[in-house]
Amino acid sequence: MPPTPQPAVPVQPASHAQTTPQAPSLDRVVPPSKRLQRVAEHFHQQTELLAAMREQFEAEMEPMQELLVRQAQAMHRLMSNLEERLRPLNEYADGEEANLHALESRIAAGGPDHVARAFQPYLEDQRNRINATRNQIEQQRVPFAQYGEDARDAVEVALSRFDHDMDALEQNLAEQRRVMMRMLDAMRSEAFAAVKAYLDGRQEAVGQIAGAGSTDPQEIGRAMQALRSEVEGMARQSDHIKQVLDKTDLSDRQLVSMSVVGPRAMQAQAMPAMPAQPATPPAPAITMEDVDGASAASDA
Fold first, then answer.
1. Cα 158–Cα 159–Cα 163 angle in degrees, nearest 5
2. What is the pLDDT of residues 125-180, one digit of tens each?
3. pTM of the model
4. Are residues 117 and 219 in the same domain?
5. Residues spanned by the domain of 229
6. Rounded-to-integer distance, Cα 30 and Cα 200, Å
7. Per the domain annotation, does 265 fall within a domain?
8. Close Cβ partners of 244 (under 8 Å, ≥ 6 residues apart)
């Protein structure tokens, strides 16, 4: 019994959504400008370099700062010891000065008589002697104070090895500041503001055309030409603006030129004819005599 034929499954035509290429997703990250990225990387690398160098410099210079602290602590201790040694002399000078002041007050209370006049030179001598004692006490402090200053100066001399390098770094910093201010001035200039406004206007116009559902290159070209006239006059005075206009003009011309070139017809090429193959003669029919002959040969 012959098999029952199965009904043919109808083939569904491919949907339009499956054959139409999908537009790229707008959620993807927009590639950054190479020049904007270069500026960002410069400041990032400079920040990293400064942080790394500062950490290493502080590690190298910290022992010198600690040395200065130890020097100051040692000198403070020395001066404290000296003051302790000079304390009796200071107390003596203070006592002599107090006694002299009391004596002068008592003599002055009796009025300016011949006694007061007679002892006036003596009182002056006593005052000079007390001042001389205080000067001698002060002179005992001078060598130690000078020694402390000399020890600190020795550290400064050791660090003076890096004066030339610090001069170079400060000059480099001043040059960087000058270049950065020049860049900021250029970014805030009227010419660059005009360039930004021109590029923003172009993008706004393209966005409006795209929002209206149009893809007409001629319409885009006309919109770009209208915006160009706003900065065309400044391009005669600024090479930078002229370079921007040259770049945008080239882009506009390339886009508009696509709309005036029709699609090229594909030239169908005829496939070369295959050479005729010689006809194969039909195989001879097998007869009963052939079968009997083959059987006899097998028996033999």
1. 130
2. 999 999 999 999 999 999 999 999 999 999 999 999 999 999 999 999 999 999 99
3. 0.58
4. no
5. 190-258
6. 17
7. no
8. 195, 198, 199, 235
Instruction: Say if residue 236 is in the same domain as residue 195.
Output: yes
**Which of 153, 176, 199 is at the close of a domain?**
176
190-211 and 217-228 helices cross at what angle (nearest 10)?
160
Q: Are residues 48 and 123 in the same domain?
A: yes
Q: Does residue 43 sit in the same domain as residue 160? A: yes
**What gap in Å lies between CA 188 and CA 69, rounded to an integer?**
49
Structural domain total, the chain: 2
Query: Is 58 part of any domain?
Result: yes
Judgement on whether residues 127 and 99 belong to the same structural domain of the protein: yes
Render pLDDT for 22-66 as a digit per residue (tens, 0 to 9).
555 555 677 888 999 999 999 999 999 999 999 999 999 999 999
Residue 217 to residue 256: CA distance in whole angstroms:
5
Residues 6+ apart with CB under 8 A from 103: 123
> Cα-flanking dihedrals φ and ψ of residue 213, to 5°?
85, 15
Statement to judge: residues 235 and 140 lie in one domain: no
Q: How many CB atoms lie within 10 A of CB 107?
A: 18
**Using CA atoms, how far apart are residues 145 and 82, in angstroms rounded to an integer?**
11
Do 134 and 240 belong to one domain?
A: no
Nearest Cα to Cα of residue 117 among 109, 126, 107: 107
Alpha carbons 175 and 169: distance in angstroms, whole number: 10
